[in-house]
């Protein structure tokens, strides 16, 4: 027991020392000459050198990367035991040699701290890192990310690994950036007794007393009153509720992920303050996830993610969300290499690479360099086939690298300053996606179709109008940067967001809120005040009742709207004016209202966000807000103007014709176009006069 306490104390002391040192380091590395910024685009790859057969094959890999025009390689991830095969015994001989060879080839390296998965030796010696199910079963680490990252021994050893690696390569000329724990946010929650006690400690810091906890958890219901802290249990991840407790459990696990990222960021700032943190984060991972948008400033230099798009709309939204409120471009630390399917579609990766440029991306790094012969992804085809021959994918990314080399001289990466923001919150995602066993029929009407469906519907008209958007946590950002803030179905709108929206409107901003918003408070309990909670005076109305109506009809600025809008809320204006009414309901039932509050406007939509409804509403507001839509494009084609030139991307498998003004030249195709641009399936071009 004494030895265990000593290890924990040592871990805490090391973490505190690292954090203290980090506080003294400048927060920004933008002044560093190698900081990647405007005028720099990167094509690279993800590389697992420990899978390769030997140095000869690795040397061949590096030369092929160089010949393809790649600039940066991400490696180190998923390989803790390759660096530390047993506790405290480090072996960097092969990685040292690879770093030197990368430098000799002119390639930069993102060194990923491989904190997950933890090695088998760590699980064996420190069973506190094992996952325990809600039924009390201890699980063997049979797949990736089966680590309890809240365990003190895990954190102590992870910090030591990060400290050792960053010190070793801090001055290496190939080092470009540091990444943390591949796909942070993925994994499983754990139910050990130690986890329960950590959860209790988290609750004590949050609420202060059992009485306050009882109030927050509505424990007067169904004989669930807590008399002591020790009566607290971790709510089941698979349900049922109660909702308040489930939300706090998910917040607790989010904070555990953030704490680990903060520890690693402190190590980076101490040892490599001149190198940015570019980590492959996964805040929306289904099993766990975490609140990135409220915390990213603590551990992020660039928004970075794994980019595996299905459709343009959701791909654009997710990439925008990962950029958060930052002005810096997006890094696709993992990038689709052909898919869908095992071998992919020629031209698809190139199209998505240019689509990424529209969204503000700076780098595409295909997953993965070589096809995997074994393990969990053994059927995944990389740029190098299983027999060590280059596939057509390598040629495609060589083409992307060549085109990026041209575009980086012409205003790329495309740095954005959007004037429109869409509100997003991890808390709300949890509140509107309760465990299946915990959501009863009295709740479904208010959270259906759910936040993400509403968010995508609110985003779609802007996306198709080629308007830049930010996806942010409105309680943690300076909203004065924006002209329009959209709140689509934020069922849980916390106190900080409520206050910030009030300030935004009072100071001259315009906000649009859709139905199903601001129903519950920070504890996931229904407001005991008129709805929308805390904002009835801002919107100049109250709304309590709702009805299912199916097809609804209204007219917005001369545009007739007829759509399956689902349930509608009964709006009771006080100071608000009716902007549009439902034509097929008795009386003049308000569909949209607008209220003057302070210097700004607060608009309330009586239904869930729907593209057919939101499109004419936005277009009515563009001129008064000084927001100009982007280039007009047919469905499936997206475009942005960059330094007087226009980049067009056809995301469809069909040829598309785009009307242009007069004669223009294609920078990428070398063709001359008159009045009409003809894009091949998955085709792209940059037009200039």
Walkthrough of the structure:
The protein has three domains: 2-36 and 44-407, Alpha-Beta Barrel (TIM Barrel); 420-625, Class I glutamine amidotransferase (GATase) domain (Rossmann fold, 3-Layer(aba) Sandwich); 637-688, Immunoglobulin-like, CATH 2.60.40.1180. Helices cover 32% and strands 20% of the residues. It is an alpha/beta fold and 689 residues long. Residues 1-33 and 437-446 have low confidence and may be disordered. It is flat and about 80 Å long. Helix 1 crosses helix 6 (152-169) and helix 11 (348-358) runs parallel beside helix 12 (392-407). The strands form five sheets. The protein has a seven-stranded parallel β-sheet with strand order 4-3-2-1-7-6-5. Strands 9-8-10-11-18-17-16 form a seven-stranded mixed β-sheet. A five-stranded antiparallel β-sheet has the order 19-20-23-21-22, with helices on one face. Residues 419-626 form the Beta-galactosidase trimerisation domain. Its EC number is 3.2.1.23. One of its GO terms (molecular function) is beta-galactosidase activity. Residues 1-26 form the signal peptide.
